[in-house]
């Protein structure tokens, strides 16, 4: 359903950033998709989490040259009065397996829970069933309760990319209950497990592909920068006088999909639901009033805060697409993982910290064999003022 295409140069030791880098003659430079491509040795894609959450590495990239650290050092890098804003979304066990009435195998990845026991889902199947078809879904061991799904059509409209189903069982449980009982963690496509099908997720993933403060169910991917936090780090931050606040953004499967249009203006961003609660809005205002810094944990938090700032809407769907030249209004520092080539997240961090700075950081991270992507290491970035111009080569 989701595919990461790696460079054939898996064994390359040197980082390369593909694509032309043209001089900019305007205030807001024009970037193309090729500017955000790079080759990554396959062995740097983290397949397992670090032994302890805060034992992962942290590239302190607030200045140049960057400093190699361990994530548990983060509290020492922040100041009393700073505000740490985190995404409290909870990952659903959103993968469901089953068979059509004809016997053909089927896999669903639930993207969003709708009303009336309905869900919007990706569907992987050799031949799509007709509208009205009910498919039998696999139940967890010892939990046979007649779990099934009935196809109602596409979503959000007749030409939508997702499919609308009714999830049901013999006892009328709601979709959240059914997924928690029978579903599997929706690990990213680049994390490989020896088991396949119904056993594709390892036992540890149920815990480690979830943040320690996960609260609001609805995501199909973890806010991965927040996976590094454990109770000890959170306690140290509090003792240092760093305040905490939360947003909710239900991460969708589109976060793994690379941008496909060379002209970035032609890209259609996936939609995700977010909320910036009143108490977080007040915490940000108080932070700015006392001269503190807003520290966003993860790109999902950035997207939530900047969507609110740009629209004035504290809740709803966002399709915000942040590329170099974007004027950030809320975030001063960013904790983030290392992202996929040609992804919208690569563009976001380049907009935040500067295109050339990010290019140098990824070169450093590969040379020092940092671990990449969801279970990988993190970096701490500072916002660069003003639009980021491209340099001539």
Care to describe what's here?
This protein has 393 residues and is of the alpha+beta class. It folds into 2 domains: 19-91 and 207-382, QueA-like (3-Layer(aba) Sandwich); 95-183. Helix content is 19%, strand content 24%. The protein is built from 8 helices and 19 strands. It has a 9-stranded mixed beta sheet with strand order 4-3-19-18-16-5-14-15-17, covered by helices on one side. Strands 7-8-9-12-11-10 form a 6-stranded antiparallel barrel. The protein has a two-stranded antiparallel sheet with strand order 1-2. Helix 7 (344-353) packs across helix 8. The chain is globular, with a radius of gyration of 21 Å. The chain starts with 16 loop residues before the first strand and ends in an 11-residue tail after the last strand. Residues 1-28 and 388-393 have low confidence and may be disordered.
Give the number of DSSP strands: 19
Strand neighbour order, sheet with most strands: 4-3-19-18-16-5-14-15-17
Radius of gyration, taken over Cα atoms and rounded to an integer in Å: 21 Å
Q: Please estimate the helix content.
A: 10-25%
């Amino acid at each position: 359903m989701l595919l990461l295409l790696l460079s054939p140069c898996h064994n390359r030791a040197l980082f390369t950033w593909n694509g032309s880098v043209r001089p900019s003659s305007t205030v807001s430079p024009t970037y193309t998709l090729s500017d955000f491509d790079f080759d990554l040795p396959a062995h740097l894609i983290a397949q397992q989490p670090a032994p302890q959450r805060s034992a992962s590495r942290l590239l302190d990239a607030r200045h140049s040259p960057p400093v190699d650290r361990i994530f548990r050092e983060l509290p020492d890098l922040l100041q009393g009065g700073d505000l740490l804003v985190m995404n409290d979304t909870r990952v659903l066990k959103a993968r469901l397996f089953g068979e059509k009435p004809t016997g053909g195998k089927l896999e669903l990845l639930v993207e969003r829970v709708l009303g009336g026991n309905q869900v919007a889902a990706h569907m992987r199947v050799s031949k799509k069933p007709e509208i009205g078809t009910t498919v039998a879904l696999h139940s967890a061991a010892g939990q046979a309760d007649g779990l099934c799904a009935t196809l109602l059509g596409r979503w959000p409209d007749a030409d939508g990319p997702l499919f609308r189903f009714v999830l049901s069982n013999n006892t009328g449980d709601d979709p959240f209950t059914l997924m928690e009982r029978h579903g599997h963690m929706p690990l990213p496509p680049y994390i490989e497990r020896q088991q396949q099908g119904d056993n594709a997720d390892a036992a540890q993933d149920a815990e480690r592909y979830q943040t320690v403060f996960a609260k609001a169910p609805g995501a199909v991917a973890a806010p991965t920068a927040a996976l590094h936090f454990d109770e000890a780090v959170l306690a140290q931050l509090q003792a240092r006088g760093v305040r905490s606040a939360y947003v909710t953004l239900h991460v969708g499967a589109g976060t793994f999909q690379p941008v496909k249009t060379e002209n970035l203006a032609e890209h259609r961003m996936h939609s995700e639901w977010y909320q910036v609660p009143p108490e977080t809005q007040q915490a940000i205002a108080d932070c700015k009033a006392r001269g503190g810094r807003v520290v966003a944990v993860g790109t999902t938090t950035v997207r939530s805060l900047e969507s609110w700032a740009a629209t004035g809407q504290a809740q709803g769907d966002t399709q915000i697409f942040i590329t170099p030249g974007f004027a950030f209004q809320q975030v001063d520092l960013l904790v983030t993982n290392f992202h996929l080539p040609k992804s919208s997240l690569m563009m976001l961090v380049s907009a935040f910290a500067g295109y050339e700075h990010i290019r140098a950081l990824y070169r450093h991270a590969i040379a020092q064999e940092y671990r990449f992507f969801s279970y990988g290491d993190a970096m701490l970035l500072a916002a660069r003022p003003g639009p980021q111009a491209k340099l001539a080569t």
